[in-house]
Design brief:
By secondary structure, the chain is mainly β. It has 2 domains: 38 residues, no CATH class; 258 residues, no CATH class. Helices cover 4% and strands 36% of the residues. It has 2 helices and 16 strands. The strands form 5 sheets. Strands 5, 6, 7, 8, 9, 14, 15 and 16 form an 8-stranded antiparallel β-sheet that branches. The longest helix has 7 residues. The chain is elongated and about 85 Å long. The N terminus is likely disordered.
Length: 304
């Protein structure tokens, strides 16, 4: 049936015990309805960015390129068509669900370059003979990337609102401002164990849960004061290096040797997207997942 509610035409369907339900967020939740699911494709996402690049074309054996991106991406749902998430509020709809996209990174800087050693045919020195074959054809290249951290939400995992019979992800209540919370989020270490953390140890209580003086569960029926993804986790930087030697055997035959090192400095980068951000967990704030350590790769290719 159709009814005029709050200045809009809405379609209603009969529910349990004569209750009137509505899909999604077109009507306020009915307390007699219990858990009601409406699955639709009404979510959104948007992405905006400023991009800048400089490039030096290959000349005299030197090539260089660098770019910078300043961006922001928002959505009200991270997932795919095989799963769904219940709304926090059936009346307000997706307003409380708005958050940064999981892989949203505010600042990214990347650069790469190539340097060909000045030896061998067509180069400045050692253009012929055995020395040309030994020292010619060498190329050194590298890739550098640095970026700010990915977004983090602080959740209570308590079903204080529309969470009957569902997994909860309600945000927490805190007296800290967003700036104060960001100052306490990043890469820290437990002073007692040396364990890496994505929050300052002051945010963790003696039992491993969130410190209740700063992070509290919301009151039943209310939302946390923090929006989803209010701060960013630890940053990331990495350098990959390769050394290549190309030797011409005859006109249509070439031998290529490659030595490649990924994460050349074996720098530890933590993947905060996989960590536990539930303040009621005894493992809250711990960093346990990293990106790849140093990887060495060698190859010998015969091209003909």
């Amino acid at each position: 049936m159709q009814q005029y509610v709050n200045g809009r035409d809405v379609f209603l369907t009969p529910g349990t015990n004569g209750a009137v339900l509505s899909p999604g967020f077109f009507l306020p939740a009915n307390p007699q309805a219990g858990a009601v699911d409406f699955i639709g494709n009404g979510s959104f996402s948007n992405y905006n960015a400023l991009q800048a690049e400089i490039r030096r074309r290959l000349r005299s054996g030197v090539y260089f390129q660098a770019n910078y991106t300043f961006s922001k991406g928002f959505t009200d749902f991270d997932g795919n068509d095989s799963n769904f998430s219940a709304l926090l509020d059936l009346e307000k709809g997706t307003a409380l669900e708005k958050k940064r996209i999981t892989n949203d990174v505010t600042h990214i800087f990347r650069s790469n370059g190539v340097y060909e050693l000045p030896f061998g045919p067509g180069k400045q020195w050692l253009q012929g003979g055995v020395a040309s074959r030994l020292f010619g054809g060498w190329q050194l290249s590298g890739i550098f990337e640095a970026r700010t951290g990915r977004p983090i939400s602080f959740t209570s995992n308590r079903g204080t609102v529309n969470r009957q019979g569902r997994s909860a992800r309600n945000t927490v209540t805190t007296s800290l401002s967003r700036e104060e919370l960001q100052d306490r989020t990043g890469l820290f270490f437990d002073p007692a164990t040396g364990r890496p953390l994505f929050v300052d140890p002051s945010l963790i209580g003696p039992d491993g849960r969130g410190n209740p003086q700063m992070l509290q569960n919301p009151v039943a029926g209310q939302y946390g004061t923090l929006q989803l993804t209010p701060v960013s986790g630890p940053g990331f930087w990495n350098i990959d290096v390769s050394l290549i030697k190309r030797t011409k055997i005859k006109e249509s035959w070439d031998l290529e040797f490659r030595a490649e090192v990924f994460n050349a400095f074996n720098h530890t980068n933590f993947n905060v997207s996989a960590e536990n951000n539930d303040i009621n967990s005894t493992t809250f704030g711990r960093l346990t997942t990293t990106f790849d350590p140093r990887i060495l790769q060698f190859a010998l290719k015969l091209k003909f």
